[in-house]
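fyi for ur records
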Amino acid sequence: MRNRDRLIGLGEPVLPRYERIVFEKSLIAPHRQPLAAFLCPGHPLLDATLDLTLERHRDLLRRGTVLVDERDSGTAPRVLFYLEHAVQDASLLKGGDRRTISRQMLYVELDATGQARHIHYAPYLDYRPLRDEPGVDALLARPECAWITRDLEQQALAHAVAEVVPEHLREVRERRSAWIDKARAAVKDRLTKEIGYWDLRAESLKLQEQAGRPNARLNSQEARRRADDLQARLQKRLEQLDLEAQISALPPVALGGLVVLPAGLLAQMTGRPATQPADTQASAARARAIVVDVERKLGFDATDREYENLGYDIESREPGTGRLRFLEVKGRISGAATITVTKNEILYSLNKPEDFILAIVEFLDGDTHHVHYLRRPFQREPDFGVTSVNYDFAELLARAKVPT
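which gave:
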């Protein structure tokens, strides 16, 4: 582990031993326990572990697998490719390579009709592995899977190059350009003032020296040297910022893929009754339309983004400030037992606790309904192997409030 860190590490090295390590900030310094090392992206121990794991098992990603989407009651399988895309600038590292300034995982899903779509979050977190069910060979031999060939990888790459890579490049360029403009202005302001000071100081000392009153601690030549050094430093820093502004995208690389098997097809193969999801497409669409209408009446600019797979259903922009809030919509008949929430939805709510709202549409008799807003609906991350969690419907309603 330590040898690998010496090869890839750029900062603090991997230590010979750690007394405690944690993955949650709240556990770093508990009462009467020693301080723990917080393992997060960028920590040398985590980076070295990930690099070694990928080196030993990267072929498993290329080999692929089959996962089951229990929320899909249809019979059409899909193929999910996970790609890696990097953006670099013109700065050179010690090895002569350009510096990577952004690296992003891309998820492109293809269906039997040839349609491709970009999924913004890690969709596999909402899928489960096969259990005591038909094996991979039996599944791929089905006529529904006849369209799945090796050529699909090129289709996924082509879609990423045409649709996803430009978006990633634009986001990085906008963010980077704003930072570089700010840095360039700050550098010019600070160093120009220092250069001006030492220029004036050099002239003042020179006049004193000509008048026969030399400064014992600083002479005009030393002051002029400092001004020249600062001028060279300013030029070098501005040249470096120019290199950092030259941003280009590398071609995406396919890391692996998997087949997404709908639960409806699996039920058809095994002869078991298909489990219908609590949210039907019709009721879910109706619930989203109701919440969009509520948001607009509250004065927000609401957009239904369900089919973009962002980890929420509705994006609502506050007029004036432009601040966004994100709503996950669940529609239920009054008196229902549970509400099912996927792992990605829970994770997104925990990542955006101040801006996430669970919007519950309670369908009553006839066409009437009540809308409930619940902020901070979830308190902890699901366990590693969990794809979805059932929450008690009545308990969620008890904590919810009227839309605001």
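The mean pLDDT is 89. thats all i got for now
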